[in-house]
Amino acid sequence: MKLTLRVWRQRNADADGAMSTYEVDGVSPDMSFLEMLDTLNEELILTGEDPVAFDHDCREGICGACSLVINGDAHGPERTTTCQLHMRSFEDGDTIDVEPWRAAAFPVVKDLVVDRSAFDRIIQAGGYVTAPTGAAPEAHATPVPKPDADFAFEHAECIGCGACVAACPNGAAMLFTSAKVNHLNVLPQGAPERASRVLDMVAQMDEEGFGGCTLAGECATACPKGIPLFSITKMNREFLRATRKGR
Length: 247
What we know:
Layout: E1 3-9, E2 18-24, H1 33-46, E3 69-70, E4 73-74, E5 95-99, E6 108-110, E7 113-114, H2 117-126, H3 146-156, H4 163-167, H5 174-185, H6 194-207, H7 218-222, H8 230-245
Parallel strand pairs: 1-5
Antiparallel strand pairs: 1-2, 3-4, 3-5, 6-7
Helix pairs in contact: 2-5, 2-6, 3-5, 5-6, 5-8, 6-8
């Protein structure tokens, strides 16, 4: 395939950015989207140009690093991560717009790379268990009802990619925060910090400058791991419970 790419280029966080147009030829439908960007960068390097900076790591759909808005959709037209998006989702001759996440709390570092350390600080505020557990216990040592275990596993799938923020018209981080809160709050090990966890993590989320949630639902639609929208409702209940009972 031969494709036209319109890519956001921005030298650094303080510089003004703009879309630059590139032609990429010989793209295999079996390439991943990131492999296609590798091909573009190889051509740019050969001509002495600065390659396009973009985040990536495992390229197996589990690290959440590949944060790109493709033709206006977080991670592109398929419900998956950018590294697992293949070029067979596009047609020969297509023009593809590639941009970074757009959110005040995710400032652009360079080109398509954004600073998502706001997520790390939300986790640091309460996304952990402090109860001493010693060595790793046997899996069946702490009885957990199956509905609770399934609920925890469902929310533990969140990879912190930020697609929910990028897709949200308000730039809210409620789906991410709710996934991290609900994952631990439903388990016995997370009970000691149940109240302080939700209060502290929501407070940190607000401090980071994310927008307010209006339950538009775009976050759950864009989430590559299928974190459900009712996760936000569950966290809101946890927040009200903690507010009424105190820490």
